[in-house]
Amino acid sequence: MSGEFRPRGLVRTLILLSLYRRKRHGYGIMEDVEQVIGKRPSAGEVYPFLRRLEEGGYVVVERDPTCDRRKVYSLTDRGRKLVEDSIDRLSSIFEAIIESKLSVCVNCGVKIYEGGVEVELDGEKMIFCCEHCAANFLARRGIVRAVRPESGGVD
């Protein structure tokens, strides 16, 4: 797939997602993008990209039945596949970002996005998902300490 078209940039991806949801005219696409990023893309960003999508067979253009001057864009099957492939790639990127922010409970192995109980033992900081896992881990090592969930630590 070396010659395959690949959308670049957030605005282009959002244009494709807008079309994936439903047929849209250019102004409607700009509104959809603005809702997500808080800034309306320019016509110079949107229309050349739509023209390129049309030339590549990813989009078909029809005249709007309510206003003959307005064009309505919709994805072809090829365009829908492009969006689905783009979503898969983005999902992998977001998953990698989220994974980098996770901790893993030393006791049970559950992934922890935020919070948890931190215990320092012999100069090593360990993170647990909850006070029960911290207490269980310590008890198995013959260490009896009171776990204080309100402070997120162990006495």
What is the element layout, followed by pairings?
Layout: H1 10-21, H2 26-37, H3 43-55, E1 59-64, E2 67-75, H4 77-101, E3 103-104, E4 111-112, E5 117-121, E6 124-128, H5 131-140, E7 147-148, E8 153-154
Antiparallel strand pairs: 1-2, 3-4, 5-6, 7-8
Structural class: alpha+beta
Question: Into how many domains do the coordinates divide?
Answer: 2
Highest CATH level, the class of the largest domain: Mainly Alpha
Largest sheet: 2 strands, antiparallel
User: What fraction strand?
Assistant: 15-25%
Q: Judging by the overall fold, what is the CATH architecture of the largest domain?
A: Orthogonal Bundle
Tally of contiguous helical segments? 5
- Helices and strands, in order, run as HHHEEHEEEEHEE
- Tell the overall outline: rod-shaped
**Into which percent range does the helicity of residues fall?**
40-55%
Mean pLDDT: 86
CATH topology of the largest domain: Arc Repressor Mutant, subunit A
What does this entry look like structurally?
The protein has 155 residues and is α+β, with helices and mostly antiparallel strands. It folds into 2 domains: 90 residues, Winged helix-like DNA-binding domain superfamily/Winged helix DNA-binding domain (Arc Repressor Mutant, subunit A), CATH 1.10.10; 51 residues, no CATH class. It is 46% helix and 21% strand. The protein contains 5 helices and 8 strands. The strands form 4 sheets. The chain has a two-stranded antiparallel sheet with strand order 1-2. A two-stranded antiparallel ribbon has the order 3-4. A hairpin with a 4-residue loop joins strand 7 and strand 8. Helix 1 crosses helix 2 and helix 1 packs across helix 4. The longest helix has 25 residues.
